[in-house]
Each structure stands twice: as structure tokens, then as C-alpha cells.
């Protein structure tokens, strides 16, 4: 059914860059056979899943939405892919994304934008717009994304799906093609909070192949969500972040968000306003730290080891000229912009002024959050300042595009878990509700999310 649906809708939506029909059917048949023999399989066995195209899968094309990797077939599986396979989940294909996960609309994909199933004239968010659109259009019930500054949560917000960024280190990054390593985290995309929790349970847990992986047991997230009643919310202290209730957020977004906060209050939660002053500088700090890491991570794409290799049309064929030509042709403008920004902020003369200051702001964000969580259980904000905007609206204005990430970035800077849950419609388009929980408290995040849903 999933493959039929993809065949029918993908030509319009462009959520998938590659469909692995054979692989998916082989897994599905294997699961059926094992079930018939009475083998006890996990709850997600046989449930189809889509994988964002920056997670490597052995022998399956992996492009990161870039011409640079077009035609490359990785020789190994990412740890999350291995875990999904072990759970018996048929992997139906790889989903579209902004090039190397840089963007908020999928318009920066080298293979054309993904359309929002709610309105095909509008963006599905980014960078993980393909995964979100695939789930929103009922092509698959579950997908994997990656979130460096909001790329799971913001697409979730604008497509009416649930998207979670786990605590940094809770899910392995081995086999996730790095964008900004200190911020990147793999997470679930789903239609319900319980589904997202079930998937995080499958992919989470320690991995010795990732040096930043946490050596802590995975909580039973799905059981917990299913057990949540309104009672669990009673007496909980929920903080609304003052800095995320400004004019920068569309009136329709704010009113749907406030209505959801009122519902939590009616269910017995205590609502307080919390101030996180550093949040005003978080976006600026992110757009210095992230490009710095990007410029370093992108250095490996040199035309020698992976994907595209282009030679200069005339003149001598030297290694340096081949690299320059390959990178010139292989990378799109947004990736180049970030490499240039990153090398600039890391350069000797500017390091302290830009990168150094940004790292200090990062510490302040962590401190603000620590202080906030000393008095509240979770923090809440609208996920995204607007609902899905029209194609072309922000593509020529990087600053306007970057502002989409206003509310999602603090979680990445601090390593805390965050989730976006649909909370209503504004002019017929979905609005997302974000819940931020203390580090290692993904369980609490899912509990509150289930109450919003
Ligand atoms: N929109 C953000 C950016 O462009 C988020 C990216 C991400 O989370 N991968 O950097």
C-alpha cells in the first residue's frame, strides 16, 4: 500500500529521491515468513519507513540533496539504518532535503523542491521536507530525519506531523553525513506522538561507533506515552518562553499556540511565563557556529573520494584545480555561502570576535535553560514563526530564510530534546507546538506532547 501510494503521489510531491521497492518488499516478506513461524517480533516489524537522504544505506544511492554525491552508493549502513532493519521495518526509500541539510524549505535541494501535501504551492519546511511530506501525505507512517537547527521540527510544524529531536547523544550519528557535528541529531517523524516515541525507542541507545553517543539506557517511551492520561499533566509546571511570543510570530500561529496552552491549563497544568534573555542572540550564534563546523565538514568533498569529479576545461589538470572545479560544480549557492562564512569566522583575525563570542552565547543559552528548568518541568513555544510559506518567497533572502529557525535553535545549542506537535490550523494550514525538556528527559517531552495532541 505504501509503495502504491508513493507511485501515485510522488510525481507531484517529490518527497522521495529514491524508492527501494525490491529491498522494502524483501523485508516485508521476510517479516511475514518469520511471523508465520511464530517468531516474536517487535511492534514496528513490517511497518514501512522512509529515510532522509543524509543517512547512509549500503548499496542504495545517498545524495544529501546534492549533485556532489549524485551516483554515490555508500559501502555501509548508518547505525540507525541497522536498528531499523533489525526491527524488521521495510525501508521504502530515501527522502528529499535541502542540500547537505542546509535550509528551511527544501528549495535548496539539487533535485527540485518537495511540495507540501496541504497545498502544493507551499514549502514543506526544511531541511527534512521530504520525510515530513512523505508522512503527511500518508506515503509512509514513519520516517527518519536529522535536526541541526530545526530540520525535523520545523517541517513537522508546517506539514502537521510530529517531529522530535532527541537529547544530543541519545541517538547515534554514525552514518549521518555531518552538517554541524556538535548540533546534529537524528530523530523520528510520525503522525502521532506514540508512533514517534516508538521509533525513538528503536533507533536510540548507546553506539560505540559514535564517540558522542550517551551510554544510558533507553527509556520505554512508547509504553509511557500510551499510559499518559490528562492526570499526568495535573500539577506540572509549564513555562511559556516570553522571547518567543513576539511580533516575529504570525498572529494565527500565536493564537493557535495560546489556545493549546489554555487546554494544558484546563487539564491541570500550571502555566508560567519564563524569560530566556539569551534566546534573542541564539539565532546569530547558531549562524556562526554552524557554518564554522560546516566549512570543516564539507572539506572532505574534494572530487577525489566521493561522487562528482570535474576537471577544468583547459589548462593543467592539477589536484587543486580538480578540487576547485568539482566543488564549484558540485555545491549549490547556499552550501558555498556557508563554507565561505565558516572559513571567515574561523580565520585567525576574526576567530575571537565571531566564533569565540558565539561560543559564549551558546554557554549563556545553556545557563538560561538550566535556570528555567530549575523552576518549570518543560518549556513551550510555537515551533515556527509562520505557517508554510509559498515557494520563492524567501529563497533570495537568506536572512528571511534563517529566521524560520528562531524557536528551534536553542535546543540544538544546548543539546536538550525538543518536539513539534500539531496544535491547530491557521487559515487552513497546520501550526506546530514545540515542547523543550531538560537534557535526558525525552520521556517528559513525549508525555507533555501526548497531552497536547
Ligand atoms: N534551517 C536550519 C539551517 O538551515 C536547520 C538545518 C538543520 O536542522 N539541518 O541551518
From TrEMBL:
EC number: 6.3.5.7
Top-rank taxon: Bacteria
Domain Amidase: 1-443
Active-site residues (renumbered): 52, 127, 151
Catalysis performed (reactions): L-glutamyl-tRNA(Gln) + L-glutamine + ATP + H2O = L-glutaminyl-tRNA(Gln) + L-glutamate + ADP + phosphate + H(+)
UniProt keyword list: ATP-binding, Ligase, Nucleotide-binding, Protein biosynthesis
Pfam family, one: Amidase
Coiled-coil spans in chain: none
Top enzyme class: ligase
SUPFAM superfamilies per record: Amidase signature (AS) enzymes
Gene Ontology terms, MF aspect: glutaminyl-tRNA synthase (glutamine-hydrolyzing) activity
Stated family: Belongs to the amidase family. GatA subfamily.
Function: Allows the formation of correctly charged Gln-tRNA(Gln) through the transamidation of misacylated Glu-tRNA(Gln) in organisms which lack glutaminyl-tRNA synthetase. The reaction takes place in the presence of glutamine and ATP through an activated gamma-phospho-Glu-tRNA(Gln).
HAMAP family: GatA
NCBIfam families the UniProt entry points to: gatA (TIGR00132)
Quaternary structure and interacting proteins, as annotated: Heterotrimer of A, B and C subunits.
Record-given protein name: Glutamyl-tRNA(Gln) amidotransferase subunit A
Organism of origin: Flaviflexus equikiangi
Amino acid at each position: 500500500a505504501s509503495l502504491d501510494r508513493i507511485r501515485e503521489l510522488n510525481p507531484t510531491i517529490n518527497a522521495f529521491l529514491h524508492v527501494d521497492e525490491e529491498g522494502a518488499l524483501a523485508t516485508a516478506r521476510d517479516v511475514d515468513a518469520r511471523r508465520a513461524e511464530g517468531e516474536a517480533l517487535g511492534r514496528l516489524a513490517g511497518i514501512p519507513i522512509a529515510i532522509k537522504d543524509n543517512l547512509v544505506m549500503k548499496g542504495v544511492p545517498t545524495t544529501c540533496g546534492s549533485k556532489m554525491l549524485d551516483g554515490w552508493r555508500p559501502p555501509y549502513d548508518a547505525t540507525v539504518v541497522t536498528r531499523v532493519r533489525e526491527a524488521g521495518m521495510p525501508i521504502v526509500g530515501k527522502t528529499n532535503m535541502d542540500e547537505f541539510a542546509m535550509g528551511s524549505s527544501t528549495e535548496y535541494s539539487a533535485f527540485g523542491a518537495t511540495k507540501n501535501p496541504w497545498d502544493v504551492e507551499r514549502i514543506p519546511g526544511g531541511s527534512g521536507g521530504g520525510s515530513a511530506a512523505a508522512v503527511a501525505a500518508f506515503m509512509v507512517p514513519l520516517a527518519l530525519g536529522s535536526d541541526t537547527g530545526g530540520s525535523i521540527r520545523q517541517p513537522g510544524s508546517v506539514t502537521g506531523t510530529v517531529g522530535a529531536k532527541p537529547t544530543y547523544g541519545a541517538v547515534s550519528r554514525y552514518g549521518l553525513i555531518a552538517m554541524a557535528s556538535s548540533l546534529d541529531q537524528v530523530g523520528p517523524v510520525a503522525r502521532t506522538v506514540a508512533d514517534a516515541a516508538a521509533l525513538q525507542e528503536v533507533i536510540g541507545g548507546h553506539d560505540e561507533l559514535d564517540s558522542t553517543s550517551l551510554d544510558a539506557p533507553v527509556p520505554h517511551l512508547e509504553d509511557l506515552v500510551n499510559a499518559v492520561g490528562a492526570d499526568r499533566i495535573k500539577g506540572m509546571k509549564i513555562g511559556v518562553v516570553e522571547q518567543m511570543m513576539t511580533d516575529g510570530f504570525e498572529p494565527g500561529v500565536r493564537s493557535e499556540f495560546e489556545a493549546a496552552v489554555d487546554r494544558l491549563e484546563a487539564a491541570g497544568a500550571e502555566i508560567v511565563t519564563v524569560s530566556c534573555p539569551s534566546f534573542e542572540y541564539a539565532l546569530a550564534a547558531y549562524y556562526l557556529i554552524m557554518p564554522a563546523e560546516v566549512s570543516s565538514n564539507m572539506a572532505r568533498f574534494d572530487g577525489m573520494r566521493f561522487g562528482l569529479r570535474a576537471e577544468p576545461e583547459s589548462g593543467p589538470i592539477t589536484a587543486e584545480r580538480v578540487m576547485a572545479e568539482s566543488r564549484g560544480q558540485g555545491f549549490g549557492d547556499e552550501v558555498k555561502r556557508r563554507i565561505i562564512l565558516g572559513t571567515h569566522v574561523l580565520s585567525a583575525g576574526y576567530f575571537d570576535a565571531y566564533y569565540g563570542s558565539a561560543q559564549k552565547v551558546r554557554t549563556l543559552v545553556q545557563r538560561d535553560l538550566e535556570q528555567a528548568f530549575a523552576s518549570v518541568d518543560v518549556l513551550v513555544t510555537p515551533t515556527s514563526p509562520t505557517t508554510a510559506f509559498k515557494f520563492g518567497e524567501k529563497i533570495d533572502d537568506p536572512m528571511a530564510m534563517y529566521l524560520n529557525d528562531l524557536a528551534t535553535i536553542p535546543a540544538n545549542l544546548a543539546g536538550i530534546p525538543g518536539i513539534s506537535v500539531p496544535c491547530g490550523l491557521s487559515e487552513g494550514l497546520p501550526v506546530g507546538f514545540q515542547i523543550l525538556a531538560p537534557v535526558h528527559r525525552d520521556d517528559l517531552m513525549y508525555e507533555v506532547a501526548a497531552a497536547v495532541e
